[in-house]
Specification:
The protein is of the alpha/beta class. Helices cover about 60% and strands about 15% of the residues. Strands 1, 2, 3, 4, 5, 6 and 7 form a seven-stranded mixed sheet that branches. Strands 9-8-10-11-12 form a five-stranded parallel sheet, with helices on both faces.
Length: about 600
């Protein structure tokens, strides 16, 4: 409270204007009310005591009046002294209780009982807690002592009784009741006002929460839309680059490799931003899929090895032999993302030396296997004071890291959040100039089905002549990429520009499968798939449908399944993944 009150201030309004808190305002009002009524009661005692020659009563009344008037003056001049004023006021009331019982009335009358309640009530309103309990005890204690002494027949040391004469006694009893009523009313008023303010704040909080949720949802929708708009042309860039490399001369291949590298880096950054957004909204859920972990690591390692060799680094993938003999239940996509981010960073920040990815079994039982993954490099290292900060979003090891090495600063933040979904955490050991070791431990449930052998990554792509596909896609570049790519595998294709056109062509012709884009004019992929599943011709109604989508919204996979599509390929699609899915369809029709 910033006090700027004159010494002779007598305005309660000015005092209250300095205090914004309603409860503190109520305390000031309660103190002032009790002080004013107490002074009035003391002044009433004065003429009665004079008339009946009760000089001890007169002396106490004058002393109490002087003390209380001083407290009123201090309260109106320096309201910040209110705690001290409260203590003095309570001590005065307690001393009056004691003196009533043992010096003046020497009897437990209604006036003394009122004073006990007044002290206790004021103590809890003004101080609260332990202090209030102590004052209450001090006010009750003389009553208990008096009752015990009376029961034991102990006298009062021969002190002359001076009971307050009528009508002063009756007037003070009535004023005490008025003081009770006023104090309770003032406290209730403050309590009710505080509740009302809290209710308004809660209402505002609910509005703010709804606005925050709407903002987060709109951001998610915006990022999802931007993802679709960015990934769709990237699909054309990466796809056409791969097609051109097949017939390019060596010099052209170098240019195309640079183009593909740049497009892939851009895609990686887009994916990082989107994944971080999904992790913030708790929209990432792990899949439970039987996975040949050794094969998965080999597949991840192939791409990373190429990146390492381009920089002249040595690359090593060490997989425990025990891992090769078991299938585990996990989410291969998110596990790949974790390892790829960590190993990709290791390659990025290493100029000379080696990058090693290691997977070793720590322990195993009939149901689970615990595996420790380590990514070791001989790179620039991370200083000890930055080893915690680098896992925060948009933070890198030093101020010049982004300028020198690039990146969004989201990779490690995403890794940390993804590992939490695996009930794991990232550990880091690093020395500046000597390299780093990132490690984490995951406990995988074991899969008890058939064990697949570890296949080589680069499968020989054979002809799928005789396979006829319907491509439902409105983007001409994506159509061109798909047609050129599928023609390499001798697959016949028919194109539909939207879902309605795809439905019409499926009704007129026979196809082995449909590649269905999600976002199309006239009728989108979801509606078209539902319409296909509702066809009367069961052979056509049950045709395999693979979704082609650049969307990464958190519920896109659920919506794809609900629409009746068996599988999906994300744009920009991986050639090997698309080939693998089409190969399964080809085997099913031959």
């Amino acid at each position: 409270m910033n006090e700027q009150l004159p010494f002779f201030n007598l305005s309660l309004k000015k005092v209250l204007a300095l205090e914004p808190d309603p409860f503190k305002k109520a305390k000031i009002k309660i103190v002032l009310t009790i002080l004013v009524f107490s002074v009035i009661k003391a002044l009433i005692v004065v003429p009665v005591a004079i008339e009946y020659a009760q000089y001890r009563q007169l002396f106490r009344a004058l002393l109490v009046s002087a003390v209380l008037l001083s407290m009123i003056k201090v309260l109106l001049y320096r309201p910040s002294r209110m705690p001290v004023i409260s203590h003095i006021m309570l001590l005065t009331g307690t001393s009056v209780v004691w003196s009533n019982l043992f010096l003046y009335s020497q009897d437990l009358n209604i006036l003394t009982v009122q004073l006990v309640f007044m002290v206790s009530l004021s103590a809890y309103y003004l101080l609260g807690g332990r202090q209030a309990a102590i004052y209450t005890l001090c006010a009750i204690l003389p009553v208990i002592l008096f009752m015990l002494m009376k029961e034991m027949g102990i006298g009062h040391w021969g002190i002359t009784v001076q009971k307050l004469a009528m009508p002063g006694f009756d007037i003070i009893v009535v004023l005490n009741f008025v003081t009770f009523i006023m104090s309770n009313y003032l406290f209730y008023q403050a309590f009710y006002q505080n509740l009302k303010e809290k209710e308004l704040l809660n209402q505002q909080l609910q509005v703010n929460i709804l606005e925050a949720k709407a903002l987060a949802e709109s951001r998610s929708v915006f990022l999802s839309t931007m993802s679709h708009e960015l990934r769709t042309p990237l699909n054309g860039v990466i796809g056409m680059t791969n097609l051109l490399k097949d017939n390019a001369v060596d010099e052209q291949k170098d240019y195309l490799n640079i183009l593909e590298f740049s497009a892939t880096n851009l895609l990686s950054m887009i994916n990082d931003v989107l994944d971080y957004n999904k992790s913030e909204l708790d929209k990432i859920e792990l899949e439970d899929i039987p996975v040949n972990l050794a094969a998965l690591l080999q597949k991840i390692g192939y791409g990373l090895e190429m990146k390492a060799l381009e920089k002249g680094l040595s690359w090593k993938l060490e997989v425990d032999d025990v891992v090769k003999h078991h299938l585990v239940i996990t989410d291969p996509t998110r596990l790949t993302q974790i390892i790829y981010n960590l190993a990709g960073n290791a390659i990025k920040f290493t100029e000379n030396g080696i990058v090693v990815v290691n997977a070793v079994v720590l322990n195993q039982n009939d149901n689970q296997v615990k595996i420790k993954f380590s990514i070791t490099d001989t790179g620039i290292g991370i200083s000890s004071d930055r080893q915690e900060a680098i896992f925060d979003p948009f933070v890198q090891a030093s101020t010049d890291t982004t300028r020198k090495y690039g990146g969004s600063g989201l990779g490690l933040a995403i890794v940390k959040r993804l590992l939490k979904l695996f009930d794991s955490d990232i550990k880091l050991e690093s020395q500046v100039g000597k390299g780093s070791v990132f490690s984490f431990i995951i406990e995988f449930p074991l899969y008890r089905g058939a064990l697949d052998t570890v296949d080589e990554l680069k499968m020989e792509k054979t002809s799928m002549k005789g396979l006829k596909l319907l491509i439902a896609e409105d983007n001409r570049i994506n159509v061109l990429v798909l047609e050129k790519l599928l023609s390499k595998w001798d697959i016949q294709t028919i194109v539909a520009a939207n879902g309605q056109e795809a439905l019409n062509k499926l009704a007129d012709q026979d196809f082995d499968a449909v590649l269905m884009d999600i976002h199309m004019p006239v009728m989108d992929g979801y509606a078209a798939s539902l319409a296909i599943r509702a066809l009367g011709n069961q052979a056509k109604a049950n045709i395999p449908i693979i979704a082609l989508t650049a969307s990464v919204s958190h519920n896109v996979h659920t919506k794809i399944k609900e629409a009746g599509m068996q599988d999906y390929v994300a744009k920009p699609f991986q050639t090997d993944l698309l080939y693998e899915k089409l190969q399964q369809i080809y085997k099913g029709v031959n």
